[in-house]
Amino acid sequence: MYRFLFIILLSFTFLVVVKCGRQFRLGRSKGGNLGAPGEEEDRKIHDLPPAQWFQQKLDHFSVTDSRRWKQRYFVNESFYDFKNPGPIFLMIGGEGPADARWMVKGAWIEYAKIFNALCIQLEHRYYGESHPTKNLSTKNLQYLSSNQALADLAYFIKSMNDKYKLNRQVKWIAFGGSYPGSLAAWLRLKYPHLVHASISSSGPLLAKVNFMEYFKVVVNALREKTGSEDCVTQLKLAHQQIETMMKTDPGSIEKEFRVCKPFSKATKNDIKNFYNSIADDFADLVQYNEDNRISADTRYKNLTINTVCQMLTEPTGGPAYKKLAVFNAMILDKTNQTCLDYSYDSMIKELRNITWGSEGARQWMYQTCTEFGFYQTSSGEVEVFGNHFTLDFFIQQCQDVFGPK
Ligand SMILES: *[C@@H]1O[C@H](CO)[C@@H](O)[C@H](O)[C@H]1NC(C)=O
Ligand SMILES: *[C@@H]1O[C@H](CO)[C@@H](O)[C@H](O)[C@H]1NC(C)=O
Ligand SMILES: *[C@@H]1O[C@H](CO)[C@@H](O)[C@H](O)[C@H]1NC(C)=O
Ligand SMILES: *[C@@H]1O[C@H](CO)[C@@H](O)[C@H](O)[C@H]1NC(C)=O
Ligand SMILES: *[C@@H]1O[C@H](CO)[C@@H](O)[C@H](O)[C@H]1NC(C)=O
Predict the structure, then answer these.
(1) pLDDT at 47
(2) How do the domains of the chain map onto residue ranges?
(3) What does the pLDDT read at residue 358?
(4) Which ligand ends up closest to the CA of 295?
(5) CATH topology of domain 24-201
(6) Closest by alpha carbon to 268, among 326, 179, 176, 342?
(7) DSSP-assigned beta bridge partners for residue 19
(8) What is the pTM of this model?
């Protein structure tokens, strides 16, 4: 779901309103949130700046709590002239690991060369290797909030000003895309004495529980990018065919969509999850259309709105649902999944795991359940994707993962 918006930050433009968090669902594409920039062939991992660690406060809003933890950050000082200091560029980390590759590439690095900026990237608390607590128990997640994250940034800025002995004229410029885009805007609003300006790229500023507009943007992007209604018509037709065949011939859908278990064993939530999964694959296609992020497998570089819509609208190739299934199979291959796992229970089980892992799905889920919502429901595009993943399905997930409030 990790989906929101901007001004051109990192040398690519998002077409869509943000997608926040979505990539984290089980059986879904794992490349959902803002990934690393495309790698230059001649650049090896050992050229990247090393991680540094900052002693951060656990709870900025308690005067008696003196607990500290180590927050990860990266610095590129190459463009900076300490005798004639330029601005400080601060890339705000989001709902996934910070990535050192951003320290050498991206639009902000091009700007840094022009302005002789000092570049710093700070990882968001509870993501990547920035672990404020021993585990991710619901109790421990009480310190995970955008307010704490903003206070982390403010305290970090003050400490760096001391560390680098920066004078009061130094200008901090915050950068962020998607959720960090929101943070960038909020940081400037909340701490104007510390932050001179912010570049808020695709930042969703309105927390909305039922974010039904998301799929509207997805559908509009198909129209606008192809200049025709045909792709939307075929997609709608495919979903209608799937719904009909789920009643008359579920075996064909099982086979074409390569599901891991038969629908006869599926619960109501499994079915909702199935429809949500196939809709999400299309949403990912649109959200990351023709971006320039690192792609592990160049075979899938041609998976774009135009090529997929062309396939869907081809007069040959059988009924619409089969063509959608072909796209679905490509996504499974691309993400190395042998079958489409639409099991609700295994998704919930994964999200209940309180051990630190790399992805951050549980953490983002916590943030959506407690502060943002941002649920990309089917309610805005019932005609195209059916009406299977409504708000109550997402609220149910919050309760099943973290317990009823
Ligand atoms: C900073 O980025 C530039 C441009 O990519 C790179 O050449 C340089 O090695 C980087 N410096 C550090 C300390 O990583
Ligand atoms: C999680 O961490 C807390 C300490 O922060 C500890 O008390 C608790 O036992 C841990 N839970 C598990 C299941 O390890
Ligand atoms: C992308 O290219 C591969 C092989 O080059 C081809 O098999 C596949 O159908 C193409 N995908 C689309 C969506 O055109
Ligand atoms: C899938 O597997 C290939 C080959 O093992 C690997 O190069 C690629 O990174 C994997 N892709 C994902 C998304 O895990
Ligand atoms: C919980 O997550 C950790 C880290 O990703 C993993 O190693 C472990 O196997 C998971 N535990 C269960 C019960 O799935």
Answers:
(1) 83
(2) 24-201, 213-402
(3) 75
(4) 4
(5) Rossmann fold (3.40.50)
(6) 342
(7) 2, 3
(8) 0.90
